[in-house]
Structure formats: structure tokens, C-alpha cells
Amino acid sequence: MQTLKIDLVSDIACPWCAIGYARLEQALATLPELNVDLQWHAFELNPDKNAPQEPILPALSRKYGRSEDEMRAAQSNMMHIATELGINFSKLQQRFTCNTFDAHRLVKWAATQQKATAMKLALFNAYFGEAKDVSDATILAECAVQAGLNSVDAARILQTDEYSDTVKSDIAKYQQAGVSSVPAFIINNKYLISGAQEPAQLAASLRQIANEMA
Length: 214
What we know:
The chain has 214 residues and is of the alpha+beta class.
């Protein structure tokens, strides 16, 4: 069985990243001949830890120079896509902007316990499904429990700078590599697939890469 290494660069605050991972799962389900080594990497859409939190629709409206109605329509479209994929996006439009640096630290910790994906999915659900503040230590500890991790250990990590350097170097590495939008899938350190592509298209790309690497 051939193994593909997939480095997935994403942010917890990115709805398309949650959609992209769900579509990756669907694509891989059609490729039983492939074994995948998936590693999550950090990206920050809101890197300013001191920025005040604000409702997502006006924040997106200002960021993209489009009306709130246009942003609401775009978010509604993502909610429809998420529903079809079985992802909880029920409070996508009720969330507030937030910094995800500490959430990324917990994903790095979870990776040492082979639970990075579970942690990432718990964070996606908390932010998009429940509109929770995923920069808040209490919420983050709750997500750790949902991922099968110890809340006391999570709280202890959040009170320190543990994994901060790992996250910073991760962010810097992929910025320097030219990743400016997420999700970004880097396959075998060589091929870049950008965006949350449809499962069939993603599967075709992965199959072609696997054939070229064989």
C-alpha cells in the first residue's frame, strides 16, 4: 500500500478548512489503495491577539469590502455545503472573530497523543457549530476533553508558553513557502493543492500524484 504524506495548513477560524478536511475524508474513502500520513499545520486568519472581538458578519464585510448581506449569503452557502457533509455549522453567522494561537498550541500538544485530528474537529464544532470563543482557556479545555484528552493537562499548557515556538515556526515556515490562503494541502513535500476542492476532484489529484510517485 502506497503512503502519501499530507501536510494540511489551516486555521480553526476558517470554515473552508473544516469543509476541506471533510471533503478530504470523502476523497480518501474512494482511494482504499492509499495510506495517508496527515499532519496539521497552523495558519492565523486573525493574528492580532489584542484585537477586540466583533460579530463575524460586519468583520467580514469590512475585510472583503462587501456588504453584510453578501457575506450573509456566502455564509449561508457554506452552511448548506457543511450540512451535506455532516458538519455542524449551525451558528456560523453568530460567532465572533477571535485569535486562534492558543487553539493551535493545543492541536500541537494533541498531536503528541495522536489526537490532533480529534482536537481540530472539536475546535471546528465549538466555533462553527456552537459559536464558542475558541481563544478562551475554559472552552479550549472543554474541546480537549471532547477530543479524548485531559482537561487538567490542557489547562496547564495554556497557562504556559508550551508549544508556542512550535506554532510560530509552523506559521513562519508555510508563510515563507508562499502559502497565503487556507486550506492548503502539501502532498509529499512536493505538490500543492489549494482550497477546499470537491471530493472527486481531490481524489483524482491524489491518485495522479500517487501514480507519479510510484
